[in-house]
Design goal:
198 residues; alpha+beta; 4-stranded antiparallel β-sheet; 56% helix
Length: 198
């Protein structure tokens, strides 16, 4: 499986900021990844995409970094990794939004793709509020990012992933409105996603 951007970023931090402890940090990261993979041996292909891509390396990096820095600094460091990737994704989406009229299709794309990428087989559960007529509104009531972070005693880590959504999708186009009032990772009872044409 392709190496996660989080794994690469963590390794860079270990090598550049903590050269004397770099090998020990990488060993701690690898050990946590082995344990997390063992816990998730029965995960579906759809869920593994999220586990391997972000959830497990995020938890492993956060835990390993706490051995060489305070917890709040470790959280900021992992948040920085996630934020940097989100800003790259946003840049790519903004380039696409220059295609005349493409913005009109975005809510429909979300309606179609969300059940495939963030459906029950991937560990999510959602209630559809409105998915048509230029509107995508769902309440995400279960999220594997939140579940895993809570299970591994780092619920605060989930906010990194919540924030990445807002960074990526807010302000994509003047005629597109992205909105959430709460997320599971920020203590809400659901993530109330809304993306609609203005």
């Amino acid at each position: 499986m392709k190496q996660s951007y989080l794994t690469a970023a963590f390794q860079k931090t270990a090598e550049e900021r903590f050269p004397a402890q770099a090998e020990a940090l990488k060993a701690a990261f690898d050990e946590k990844m082995r344990a997390l993979r063992a816990e998730n041996t029965g995960a579906t292909k759809e869920k593994l995409r999220h586990l391997e891509g972000q959830i497990m390396p995020g938890i492993a990096a956060y835990e390993a970094l706490q051995t060489v820095m305070p917890k709040d600094e470790a959280l900021r460091t992992v948040h920085g990794y996630v934020e940097q990737r989100a800003r790259k994704q946003k840049k790519a989406f903004l380039a696409l939004m220059r295609i005349p009229g493409l913005y009109r299709s975005v809510p429909k794309i979300f309606c179609t793709e969300t059940p495939k990428l963030f459906g029950e087989t991937a560990g999510f559960a959602a209630t559809e509020i409105q998915t048509g007529g230029g509107v995508w509104r769902i309440d995400m009531t279960k999220c594997p990012y939140h579940d895993a972070c809570v299970q591994h005693d780092c619920p605060e880590l989930c906010t990194c992933f919540c924030d990445s959504d807002d960074i990526t999708y807010d302000g994509l186009h003047p005629k597109l409105y992205w909105h959430r009032t709460k997320t599971l990772g920020r203590g809400g009872d659901c993530c109330d996603f809304c993306l609609r044409l203005r």
